[in-house]
Amino acid sequence: MSSSAPHRIVFANEKGGTGKSTTAVHVAMALAYQGAKVAAIDLDPRQRTMHRYLENRAETENKRGISLPGATCEVHDGGTAQELEERVARLGEGMDFIVFDTPGRDDELARHAATEADTLVTPMNDSFVDFDLIGQVEGDSFKVKRLSFYAELIWEARLKRSRATIEQQRREMDWVVVRNRTGHVEARNMVRIEQALRELSKRVGFRVAQGLSERVIYRELFPSGLTLLDKGHLGELGTSHLVARQELRSLLNSLNLPMPGKREPQLELA
After folding, report:
1. Is residue 268 part of a domain?
2. 132-170: b or e for each residue (b if 16 or more CB lie within 10 Å)?
3. Among 2, 142, 152, 188, which residue's beta carbon has the most beta carbons within 10 A?
C-alpha cells in the first residue's frame, strides 16, 4: 500500500458498550465537515450500527430536503481477509480516509483490520473490566502484570509495520486508546486507570486521548442520523451539547490525522 492510499482509521475494541460506533460516526462526519473524502466499512454484519446510522442520515436528508456532509458506507459480511482488502481497494479509490467500525467481540476480520490500521482507535470506558482488553493488573496494587493477547497482537503488528515502512512505503501505525465516558467514574478509580494506562503505554507505545462523555443526546441522534456537528438541524442546543461538541473537536485534534491540504472545509468545527 503506497502513501497515496486512503488513511485507514480503525475503531476496534473486542468489548461492547464502549461508544465505539458513536465515536467512529462522529469522527467520520467531522472529517467530512473539514472537506475530506470519507468512506466507511462496517465489519459487524449483525449490528450494522455505523451503516444504519448513515442510512438514517440519508433518509433525514431526503425528508428535509437538505444536504449534509457524509460518507459512503458498506457492510462487509464475512469472507476472507483478501476479500476485505479487495473491497477496501474499491471503496477507498479517490478517498482521503476509510473508517472501519468493528464488532465488539473477537473477530478474525476485525483483527486483520486492526493490524492494517494507520490509526488504530481503541475506545474504552474507565473500568478495569475494559482495561483487561489491553492489560491485566494486580488485584492489590493495580500495577500492570502482563499484556493481554490483543495488546500483544497490536504490538507485533506495529513491529512488522516498522520493518516494512521504508521498503513498502507503509505509514507507521499510530495506536490511540480513547477514554470515553469518564464523567461517571469515581475519582480514585479514575486515578488508578490513569496510572495503569501510563505504565502500559510505555511498554506498548500507544497514546491516550480523552474521548466522549456519556450523554443522552448520542442515543437520541441515532434515528435521524444527525451528529453534534449538524448545527442548524438540531434545534436548540443546551450548554452540555456545546461542551460535547468541544469534546469531539478535541478528540479529532488528538488523533492528529493527515488532513488533505487542498480541501475547503464545509463548516468549521466550532
Report:
1. no
2. ebbbbbeeeebebeebbebbeebbebbeebeeeeeeeeb
3. 142
CATH number at residue 125: 3.40.50.300
CA distance 19 to 214: 9
Write down the residue that cell numbers 492494517 correspond to: 116
| Longest Cα separation, the chain | 58
Taking the C-alpha atoms of residue 71 and residue 31, their distance in angstroms, rounded to an integer, is 9
Q: Over 60: is that where the pLDDT of 265 sits?
A: no
Mean of the pLDDT values across residues 187-196? 85
72 domain residue, yes or no? yes
Given a cut of 80, is residue 21 above it in pLDDT?
A: yes
Whether the predicted pLDDT of 236 surpasses 80: no
Range(s) of the domain holding residue 191: 7-255
Q: Distance between CA 246 and CA 163 in Å, rounded? A: 37
